[in-house]
Amino acid sequence: MLIEHRGRRPVVADSAYVAPSAVLCGAVVLGERARILHGAVLTAEDGEVRLGADVVVMENALVRGRARHPATLGDAVLVGPHAHINGATIEDEVFVATGVSVFPGAVAGTRSELRINSVLHVNSKLPPDSVVPIGWIAAGDPAELFSPDRHDELWETQRGLDFPGTVYGASRDTPMRTLMARQTAFYGAHRDDRELDD
Q1: β partners of residue 86
Q2: Which of 149, 103, 97 lies closest to 126 in space, CA to CA?
Q3: What tens digit of pLDDT does each residue of 99-109 get?
Q4: What is the pLDDT of residues 155-189, one digit of tens each?
Q5: SS (H, E, C) the chain
Q6: pTM for the whole structure
Q7: 74-98 average pLDDT score
């Protein structure tokens, strides 16, 4: 399904394929031979989503573009099922496995591998040819690898990456009620979306 959002429409290369149950919303650009499989959602909220050539986004994955952090995927990238790429740069030949989360401002370097359920944290830079093991977290610039049981050490790195400021434009002490009032107003722009004819 192709949807116009905030006056912008998806652009799909003739050689690309979008499954009938996939959604491309707003300023989404698909490169040559891109494949968007069933249930995947590529949504350009107020920033672009741009895919290179020979990219596969598998079932139920989410790729979200943001104004300060567009989502950019290079050539020959695989995004596994249920992966979440939000306002990040995925360079060429990167493997993003099932359930991976990549947050705004992050960069996954060329030929890197983010294995099942791993995380590349906000504003973190994963060098080329790196591997993030199953379930591990990469945080910092350059990214340091943390196993899930090292939360206290991770927090020391994570705190300086400013997740709430980067993702929500808010301080860590912003009340949830205030934050959600802003978020519901922002996502309310979807009420004006328009489904496009194929």
Answers
A1: 64
A2: 103
A3: 999 999 999 99
A4: 888 878 878 788 888 888 888 888 888 888 888 88
A5: CEEEECCECCEECCCCEECCCCEEECCEEECCCCEECCCCEEEECCCCEEECCCCEECCCCEEEECCCCCEEECCCCEECCCCEEECCEECCCCEECCCCEECCCCEECCCCEECCCCEECCCCEECCCCEECCCCEEECCCCEEECCCCHHHHHHHHHCCCHHHHHHCCCCCCCHHHHHHHHHHHHHHHHHCEECCC
A6: 0.90
A7: 98
Q: What residue type is assigned to position 196 of the chain?
A: L
Q: Which two tokens stand for residue 133?
A: 């093991």
Q: What domains are there in the chain, each with its CATH number?
A: 2-195 (2.160.10.10)
